[in-house]
Design goal:
Distance between the termini: 42 Å
Number of helices: 7
Order of helices and strands: EHEHEEHHEHEHEEHE
Strand content: 15-25%
Helix content: 25-40%
Largest sheet: 9 strands, mixed
Radius of gyration: 16 Å
Shape: globular
Oligomer: single chain
């Protein structure tokens, strides 16, 4: 777990650091590395870290480099952290067989920002699916963003409810969608659609 902090503008850096320290004590193969943003510009560039607290769950081979967390993964969101650790540690990513080819065939950059809150029971599913896509395809980067810690971003993307998944800045969908519909919404954005990518009814 590569954990990034900042001496300024880092609301819950201490709390996230304590949580990740406890997690690292649970298994000998879980290692925690702490970096101050002011002293590690090259790592900020590599992992595209632009707000704090932030961390990446990855292994020595870089499996997980595009799967990021911004803010504290507390409450229900703790499940997303555990899922990331297990998937990176085993290098096993489970998705329905019928959509795996579609995931692997994504050939354009996709940036997913999944806005969550700790009290949202549906948010972990949205984060976990996004992270799975990032693990399976190098064109995908997926972020968990704790909405209340980054109000400027929440306002920018008009986050009124969670989970809200922002796709490449100008497309979005909301709710805990099944994997196939989640992926279909991403495909709509890649084909040029903007705004709400999932309309019910």
């Amino acid at each position: 777990i590569k954990y990034f902090t900042s001496k300024t503008d880092c609301q819950l850096c201490t709390e996230v650091g304590e949580l990740l320290t406890e997690i690292s004590k649970l298994h000998e193969k879980v290692k925690l590395e702490k970096y101050e943003s002011e002293n590690n510009p090259e790592l900020l560039e590599k992992y595209k870290i632009d707000k704090y607290p932030a961390f990446v769950v990855t292994n020595k081979e870089g499996f997980g480099d595009r799967m990021r967390f911004f803010g504290i993964p507390s409450g229900y969101e703790f499940v997303s952290l555990l899922s990331a650790i297990i998937e990176v540690g085993t290098e096993k990513v489970e998705l329905p067989e019928e959509i795996l080819d579609t995931v692997k065939n994504i050939d354009k950059p996709v940036h997913l920002q999944v806005f969550v809150t700790p009290t949202c029971p549906y948010c972990p599913q949205a984060v976990i699916i996004g992270h799975k896509l990032a693990l399976l395809n190098e064109n995908v980067t997926a972020d968990m963003v704790e909405a209340t810690e980054f109000p400027n971003l929440s306002n920018k993307y008009n986050v009124k409810g969670v989970p809200r998944v922002v796709v490449n800045e100008d497309g979005y969908f909301e709710g805990a969608l099944p994997e196939a519909i989640y992926l279909d919404s991403i495909k709509k954005r890649l084909s040029g659609e903007k705004g709400n990518l999932f309309q019910q009814g």
